[in-house]
Amino acid sequence: MDNNRFWKKNYDAGIDDLDPALWEVTLIDSFKKTFQEFPDRIALVFMGVEITYGQLDIYAQRFAGYLRDNGFKKGDVIGINLPNIPEYIIGYLGILRAGCIVSGVSPLLSQEELVFQLQDSNARGLITLDAIYEKKLYPVAHKLPSLKFVCVTSIGSFMPAVKSFIGKLIGKIPKGKVEPIDAISIKWFADIVKNKNYSAEPFDAGLTPDDIAYIQYTGGTTGVPKGAMISHRNALSDLIIVQTWLLIDRGGNNALSAFPLFHIAGLFTNSVFINSGLTQILIPNPRDTDHICSELKKYKPFFTANVPSLYHLLMGNPKFKKLDHSTLHVCVSAAASYPEESQKQLEEIIGQGKLLEAYGMTETSPLTTMNPTRGKKKLGTIGLPLMNTDIRLLDPSTGEEVPPGEPGEICIKGPQVMVGYYNKPEETAQVIDARGYLHTGDVAVQDSDGFLRIVDRTKDMINVSGFKVFSKKIEEILTEHPAIELIATIGIPDPEKPGSEMVKAFVKLFDGFDYGGDIDVLKEDIISFAREKLSPFEVPKVVEFRKELPLTSVGKLDKKQLRKEEQQVR
Questions:
Q1: Would you state the pLDDT for residue 254?
Q2: Hey, what CATH class is 236-459 in?
Q3: I need a surface site. Which of 47, 187, 228, 316 has the fewest CB within 10 A?
Q4: pTM for the complete prediction?
């Protein structure tokens, strides 16, 4: 670790590097203290249902025992394909306790993307919703020879029976038919965790801090989906560092995060809440701001963490503005850039000095920088490098460190940096250099106080509400459309979500292609084609037809020129 980390002078009083011995245990060993100390404390709140740490402990251990008794062993990968419902956290804990590896699988994935991730990770198990099972998994199960076990649940399984029944009856809760699949064991989640015949006795799975806890999929810095291998040491170090940075008291408060649990940001906040013994308020639908407001009013959390676009939605809800925010002390924004003006507007509602912008990525477990909790903050920056973390800004073309105040690629070294990409040693070597620094692909400027401000990205990455969207993937798929000869996609500002982008596609049609004379019909057809092949956040929201697309001197699509033209018309 570089000793010349000048930014430490701006840390909050009492904050300094931690003893690395703190993360020489596993996540499960660290969580154990919470379950022993706070069995009667509410761990999870979900749609009016409250689950104590004692109940969560039993549910998770039954699931772990079931996995062990049915042939799962240390190192097996199990995907969790759920929204933010109790089953995600129960499954997460049970998988880790069984010595297995958690892999978040977005419910938003297309059928093709689902198959790719499960194949690439060699997943032996999957927890999913009945609706996803019927529509996405069942038709493609024959393509997944490694998959041996599917655990099915419904969004309403932990709701009161009457509320769940009515929700399904009126269509508010999706449902699906669960038919058998050859060579795959199918089990309902509730039949495992609520069945007293299954043992809740703890057992030793033989885990060490070096063992992999998560394989979380990301485009990384190259755009090709890859599984970032995050060890127990990686995950726990970042958890303890941030828990200390935020000055969190154990066991005494409520917290709310709408980050999806299948995303590293949601998985991380969940683990911080569990390790700290906090009450976690689950938000299954982050667009339902009325529900979020009612939970904020009822439980008065001291801590909240969300993507900037959700704060924007909340600010547009009059109920949010009328809430008493006096009990809210920490408001974290991460996973996407947040315009400084919007940050000021939020603080006018919740109170000055409460908003902390942070920065991270899947490959760093995820957080590496954050504004101080109590001390000097700089709106519009991603804060200071965290404890035990070294950051250098390097010139991408030379690899040399840039002078102070000059833009350079953020390169990170610390205990939270991933082990590598699953089964991809060459790709790993491309992003982690010989000195152990992870090259992020993001360009920033660091001021004399150590605060960082992101100014650019080295790759053609588009950030849609915290989801990394890669233009190459979209272009490769949309060129399958019979009308498209050439396509280039870029990110443009989303007017409805400050700080977020949406995808714009520039399209050159094949000469002589007959589109019937109605260009709007063709445009809608291309977008419909995209919806069938891509996740919702990847689908272009704007399509512009051009006779020619700009090319560089070597014949590559010149997206820099397209971005420049787009800025000129805005």
A1: 97
A2: alpha beta
A3: 316
A4: 0.85
